[in-house]
Amino acid sequence: MSFDKKEECGLFGIFGDDEAVQKTYFGLHSLQHRGQESAGIASSNGDVIQCYTGMGMVRRVFRRGSGLLSKLANPTAIGHVRYSTTGSSRACNSQPFLTEYSRGQVAVAHNGNLINASLLRDEYEAYGSIFKSTSDTEIITHLIAKPTHISKPDPLGHVLNHLQGAYCLLFLFADRIEAARDPYGVRPLCIGQTQNGSYVVASETCAFDAIKAEFIREVEPGEIVTLDKNGLSSRFFVKGGTVTPSHCTFEHIYFAKQSSTIFGENVHEFRKKLGRQLAKEHPAEADLVIPVPDSGMSAAIGFSEQSKLPFDMGLIRSHYVGRTFISPGQDLRQFEVKLKLTVVKEVVDGKRVVVVDDSIVRGTTIRGKIRALREAGAKEIHMRVSCPPLRHPCFYGVDFPTKEELLANNRNLEQIKEFLEADSIGYTSLEGLLSCASLPAEHYCTACWSGKYRIPVDIALNKFAMEHYQLQMFEDWPETNE
Ligand code: SF4
Questions:
Q1: Pairing mode, if any, of strands 341-343 and 352-357?
Q2: What is the pLDDT of residues 52-68, one digit of tens each?
């Protein structure tokens, strides 16, 4: 695991269930790996929507004894865990966003990144709209409230056609949930059903496992799925027909939980295939294979299977430290990394070790671990990475650093090896990566390796494109996430 890349958000929604809010809480818990900065739940009793959001992890925001889950207890709910990709880490940006317009209340939860957010906001501000956050999600509520949009036959579908970029969205209206996925299906969004028949939606199927719900299918790219008293219904909003999907390959490589099934495939199995492919492309003369836990684990198992080298745990992860790459600030992340990964001297001393990681972003973290392994007596260290070298930023909801900060930017393999102080280096090729996937190669986004952006982007855009708005509000930012 590289600790200097961050992911986006997690969504959960459930309609018409006696334990909707409790199940949303558990669903968000299981999606915590998708964001630790803030969490929130909005619920509806059929007439009125209530909402509570706060900074920190789910367990902290809805802490035991607070009575918050009881206060929110209604039969329909949506929830959100957040890492900021557009709009900074502030309480005002936590979701769901609850607002009221001429047709009543609506709460919105978003996973992804709107490329045209800044443009839309400028447009609305020019006509007098007032914003209370710096997040791209709030713009959607203004689009929903616009009188010329309300008058359309399908106002929500009309609004979604104004958005550019990657988005999975949950809308909680008083009487229903609408779940939408962008036309390219960049981020995952799944539909399930509980044992008592309630429909649920979530970013990953691991949230269904948490509440014993069964996975039915994914929300299709360009589809809006409605959960209401009539059950589940569907419509497509894309003007001019469907496009070839562009699923985020990085969801499979790193973001999603190993137990989840996304884009039609189990994440753990996909990562094992990547590890086998890596071993075929870059075998090593070594004594054992160790993973960088946790996300390098499945690929290391695959590498070990293919190479017939024994698998062992040379690095141990402390589970009492949060998912560190999500912590804002490099200093804090570095400190957390030291706390989090410990070398097992007895495993690596005197050995030639293959270290398998899912990806490398800046490279400073893994270099520190390579040094620590050598100090613990490792004779040789062969670094193997289960995806190609990252060379380009992501504009679709993943907060990689700038191009200049990426280790593989302007460095060849020899220079990368020297930087990492490894004895050898090997990355899975892009062709090898795509050969492991079950869908056709053209159905995946590979922009962070290839630089080919399927959804057109303004290269000048960055995470803080919205920050010139500089909203200052009082915030209860916790010192720790616990
Ligand atoms: S650029 Fe990379 S991280 Fe971003 S959506 Fe595409 S594959 Fe995923």
A1: unpaired
A2: 999 999 999 999 889 99
Ligand 1 centroid–CA 146 distance in Å is 32
9 is catalytic: yes
Taking the alpha carbons of 245, 181, 25, 329 in that order, is the dihedral positive or negative? positive
Identify the residues whose C-beta falls under 6 Å from ligand 1.
186, 248-250, 394, 396, 398, 445-448
Q: Give the C-alpha separation, 334 to 235, whole Å.
A: 46
- What are the Cα distances from residue 430, in Å, to 191, 270, 281, 448, 449? 30, 14, 11, 11, 8
Residue carrying the six token digits 């302007």: 410
pLDDT of residue 330: 59
Residue nearest to atom 5 of ligand 1 (CA): 248
For the chain, how many residues are written?
482
Tokens encoding 109: 């939860």
| Mutation pick for ligand 1 pocket among 5, 398, 457 (CB with most ligand atoms within 8 Å) | 398
Query: In angstroms, what is the span from residue 246 Cα to ligand 1's centroid?
Result: 9
Judging by beta carbons within 10 Å of its beta carbon (0-12, 13-18, 19+), is residue 469 exposed, middle or buried?
middle
Return d(Cα 202, Cα 52) in angstroms, integer.
19
d(CA 138, CA 131): 7
Q: Which helix (H) or strand (E) holds 414?
A: helix 413-420
Condensed to tens digits (0 to 9), the pLDDT of residues 134-147 reads 888 899 999 999 99
- Spatial separation of the C-alpha atoms in residues 206 and 134, rounded to whole Å: 30
- Position 306 scores a pLDDT of 98
**Phi/psi at 178 (nearest 5 deg)?**
-115, 125
Kindly give the number of the ligand 1 atom that is closest to the alpha carbon of 393: 1
* Residue at token pair 């620590």: 372
Q: Which residues pair with 168 in a beta bridge?
A: 111, 181
In angstroms, what is the span from residue 372 Cα to ligand 1's centroid?
31
Alpha carbons 31 and 326: distance in angstroms, whole number: 13
Instruction: Report, in angstroms and rounded to the nearest whole number, the Rg of the chain calculated over CA atoms.
Output: 22
- Among candidates 380, 391, 374, 378, which has minimal Cα distance to 427? 391
- CA-to-CA distance for 179 and 320, rounded, in angstroms? 34
Query: What is the separation, in whole angstroms, between the first and last Cα of the chain?
Result: 22
The answer to whether residue 130 scores a pLDDT higher than 70 is yes
What is the tens place of the pLDDT at every residue in 363-409?
988 999 999 999 999 999 999 999 999 999 998 988 777 888 899 99
CA 34 to mean position of chain CA atoms = 4
Q: Which helix (H) or strand (E) holds 179?
A: strand 176-181
Ligand 1 atom with the smallest distance to the CA of 251 is: 8
268 C-alpha to ligand 1 centroid (Å)? 19
Alpha-carbon distance 170 to 191, whole Å? 12
Atom of ligand 1 nearest to the CA of 186: 5
